[in-house]
Structure formats: structure tokens, C-alpha cells
Amino acid sequence: MTYAKPLPVVDAETRPFWDACRDGKLKIQSCRNCGHKRFPPTFYCSKCNSPEHDWIESSGHGRVFSWIVVRHPVPREVYAADVPYVVALIELDEGVRIASNIVGIEPEKVTANMPVRVIFKPVTPEITLPIFEPA
Description:
Blueprint: H1 15-22, E1 27-31, E2 37-38, E3 53-57, E4 61-70, H2 76-79, E5 85-92, E6 97-102, E7 115-122, E8 128-134
Antiparallel strand pairs: 1-2, 1-3, 4-5, 4-7, 5-6, 7-8
């Protein structure tokens, strides 16, 4: 499988997230000390500084918090065939926000608070990207 676009860097903090995506699950961290949900993954809770956390499965549902429509690809040779496309900040039902693409809808029809759900796009044997579509 060849994928010519930039790939995420998988490290100790993010490996459980990317492994879950490869398995078709969207997981976020939940602090064992205070219950704070967090994304992106971090070693320490931003509310109480506890290093103790669990990975919980998200419902995969949320709403569009903010978005842009990309019409001028940079770099052009990598993204020219994709324009126009939507880059959005999705607020998941669990309260965390995740940046991703929205597919399955004309970019001009994306609206604030539009309900979306996660779908998964395998791009390499190791990386499966979580993207969103209208719910």
C-alpha cells in the first residue's frame, strides 16, 4: 500500500490511539484520578497532573465545532487532486476535540454543529486515519 501524503508520527504517547484506529475503534484517554477526558494523548492529565489514565472507546459521534474548506493545496503536488476538501475540528460526545477531515458531503454544505460520525481510512498497514462523515 503506497500513501504519498504525510503520516502521523507514532510514539509511546500515541501508539494506543493508532493501534485502536487500525482496529476500527476511536479511543481517548480518561484520567484515573479525576476522570478528565483528553485528546490528543498526553502522559499527564492537564487538570490534575496525574500520569494514571485509561484508554476508553469513544462513541465516534460528535458535532462540527469549526472547519475550513481547502481550495489551494499546499504542497500542490501532494493535495491537488483532493481540493476542495474540509478540515474540521470535531467535538466528540465525550467532550474532547479532534482535528480531521469530513467526507461524504459537499464542502459548502458543512455547517456548525452538524452531527458527524467517525469512519476509518486505512492508508498503510500501520496507519488507519479516523475521518468523519455526516451522521
